[in-house]
Specification:
The protein is an alpha/beta fold. It folds into two domains: 5-236 and 445-449, Rossmann fold (3-Layer(aba) Sandwich), CATH 3.40.50.2000; 239-439, Glycogen Phosphorylase B (Rossmann fold), CATH 3.40.50. The protein is 41% helix and 20% strand. The protein has a ten-stranded mixed β-sheet with strand order 5-6-4-1-7-8-9-12-11-10, sandwiched between helices. It has a six-stranded parallel β-sheet with strand order 15-14-13-16-17-18, sandwiched between helices. Strands 2-3 form a two-stranded antiparallel sheet. A hairpin with a 6-residue loop joins strand 2 and strand 3. The termini are close together. The structure holds 6-O-phosphono-beta-D-fructofuranose. Residues 11, 30-32, 139, 163-164, 304-305 line the site of 6-O-phosphono-beta-D-fructofuranose.
Length: 476
């Protein structure tokens, strides 16, 4: 183990399945893992997370020793999963932060369980802290954890990264627990968001709700005798993880042959604007019948959070829309939309990213969207990106073709534009996007968000930065 870093998140780098003696570790594919895993591999340490197992099924808590870091599992009971993950995290914070208050289901009981589970993670983390450990907590599932750790270990260095949007104060305070959540987060010393807008929304909430003066320019909050720094640093990926050779996915080739491919890769989440994408694609076909039979929307739609009614209903509605469009425009040998509703491994996704011509993202609200970065990093050939202007990454991908996801006309228009672009225009756009992805990579993110904090947490002589060198070096 190279460093003294303790990472904590709800989901970890893999899920654990099977019984004792025959456990299987399945790699998790998610934005958070794409970004945090390379960082943890680089600097080492411990990753504490839930691995998908319930206490009813097993009593054994696993510690898995990986080559470059250790993984420690937190088990949850069915009741905890329901109240903490499905109830408050994904039934209140998720829709509020994505500006969809109509999806919020408030419940005192769920919030009580959320608190209890945050306390549980804090207690478990406490047993793993050593002098000099940097505790790095991730995402909205664990907003109260910094407070609980601070209560018991007042000297502890704590960093927190919030991976989803942070909403305007008027929306955040629809829930009656806004004060406690903000105080929870202020238990950290350093808090990170993807964009300046989210950072500003958070600072305004602290100022208005807690009546604490904040410095917007410096991003500082003075609270309980501590200085808390609040930064905006968008996550970067590790490009080389997407540059490897990968096998072909034979089973989809038959439907793709000869087609211009518009690719979408999303969880079946109501924030992702899948219905809007389908409407926009249908509008394009309606206005441009010369493209019938020549283009396809290949949509990976990964089932997610299926115990929550809003998600189940959404998945059903999306599939109905696909069917309607296929019935309206398709025939026996051509269907305009192919929807793939299973989990895809990183290798399979890389294959799809390379196989497509254009990536199309129409999220209604999206913290960053790493799929856009992965698509660019995977390819040598220029590919076009059509991007919702309501994603965090839209601020970084200035040259992408932007759309308002609520406008089928705009989506249809940009689909047409992408088809009419010259190779030279595509190459120019792609080169600019690639430059962003390579420059603002995972190391850049780690360095800019955590840099100094990390140096303090690594054993002397193990971590250094050479004079004038921009890179982080973790050397044994
Ligand atoms: O940040 C968004 C997030 O909750 C991440 O933690 C995770 O990458 C993704 O959404 C998937 O969500 P879930 O863990 O609920 O399947």
């Amino acid at each position: 183990m190279k460093s003294n870093l303790l990472v904590v998140s709800n989901r970890g780098p893999f899920t654990i399945e099977g019984e004792m003696g025959n456990l299987k570790y399945r790699p998790a594919v998610s934005g958070l893992v794409s970004a945090v895993l390379p960082a943890v591999k680089k600097v080492g340490g411990i990753w504490l997370a839930w691995a998908g197992r319930l206490t009813e099924k097993t009593l054994e808590v696993q510690t898995v020793i990986k080559d470059d870091f250790n993984f420690v599992e937190v088990l949850l009971s069915r009741e905890e999963l329901k109240g903490y993950y499905e109830g408050y995290s994904n039934g209140v914070l998720w829709p509020l932060c994505h500006l969809m208050p109509e999806k919020v289901v408030l419940s005192e009981e769920n919030y009580r369980i959320y608190k209890k589970v945050n306390q549980k993670f804090a207690q478990r983390a406490g047993t793993l802290l050593k002098p000099g450990t940097l505790l790095w907590i991730h995402d909205y599932h664990l907003a109260l954890m910094p407070y609980f750790v601070r209560q018991k270990y007042s000297w502890q260095r704590i960093a927190f990264f919030w991976h989803i949007p942070f909403p305007p104060v008027e929306i955040f305070t629809i829930q009656p627990w806004a004060q406690e959540i903000l105080r929870g987060l202020l238990g950290a010393d350093l808090i990170g968001f993807h964009t300046e807008d989210y950072r500003e929304n958070f600072l305004r909430s602290v100022e208005r709700v807690l009546k604490i003066p904040v410095n917007y320019e410096w991003g500082t909050v003075y609270y309980n005798g501590r200085e808390i720094r609040v930064k905006a640093v968008p996550i970067g990926i590790e490009p080389k993880n997407f540059q490897k050779d990968v096998p072909k996915i034979e089973e989809i080739e038959q439907d793709l042959r000869g087609q211009i491919i518009f690719l979408g890769v999303e969880r079946l989440d109501y924030t992702k604007g899948l219905k809007e994408k389908i409407l926009g694609f249908a509008r394009f076909l309606e206005k441009n019948p010369e493209y019938l039979g020549k283009v396809i929307l290949l949509q990976v739609a990964v089932p997610t959070r299926e115990n929550i009614a809003a998600y189940r209903n959404y998945a059903k509605e999306v599939l109905e829309e696909v069917q309607k469009v296929n019935e309206r425009f398709g025939h026996s040998s051509w269907q305009p939309i192919k929807i793939l509703t299973r989990n895809y491994s990183q290798d399979e996704l890389i294959y799809l990213y390379r196989r497509a011509d254009t990536l199309i993202i129409t999220s209604l609200e999206d913290g960053l969207n790493l799929v856009a970065k992965e698509f660019i990093a995977s390819r040598q050939e220029p590919g076009v990106v059509i991007l919702s202007n309501r994603t965090g990454v839209a601020r970084q991908f200035g040259v992408a073709l932007k759309v308002n996801p609520y406008s089928p006309e705009e989506i249809a228009g940009q689909i047409k534009t992408s088809l009419e672009m010259s190779l030279e225009e595509k190459e120019k756009m792609f080169a600019k996007l690639k430059e962003q992805v390579l420059l603002k990579n995972n190391e850049w993110w780690l360095d800019n968000f955590l840099g100094k904090e990390l140096m303090l947490s690594v054993a002397p002589g193990k971590y250094y930065r050479k004079r004038g060198e921009k890179k982080i070096g973790a050397v044994d």
